[in-house]
Amino acid sequence: MLAALLKFIKPVSTGGFGGLVYAGKVDEFAIPSLTHILSGRFYLLRNEFGFLALWQRCPHLGCAVPWEDEEDQYHCPCHGSLFNTVGEVLGGPAPRPLDLFPVTIRQGEVWVDTSTPIERTEFDPSQITGA
After folding, report:
1. What order do you get walking across the sheet with 33-37 strand by strand?
2. Of 23, 41, 53, 65, which is the most exposed, with the fewest CB atoms less than 10 Å away?
3. Greater pLDDT, 6 or 120
């Protein structure tokens, strides 16, 4: 019983949502590209300036927001909020852009810290992590 209890109270390990998530090697991401990292519940955008990790959660009511290739935007299925590639609100009831997760580049690898979502009021190029 003690072993089961210790396993239950042990902190969540890194590698999944709520911790540090390995997204891949920098060279694996084309410029430009948008990749859905399922284990971290975020989209990883790479453009000519670097990387941006956008939480897939709508800031309106928390629905999962899919990327729609045909529309070239994120489209929340719950109440119709629309977001551009950097997560800025284009329409709908969402009160602010999609939240970000901090991105770190270490030894050619992309790591995203999903334990610390960053709320923002607008997109700023300084939010992109260079690579």
Report:
1. 33-37, 42-47, 50-55, 100-101
2. 41
3. 120
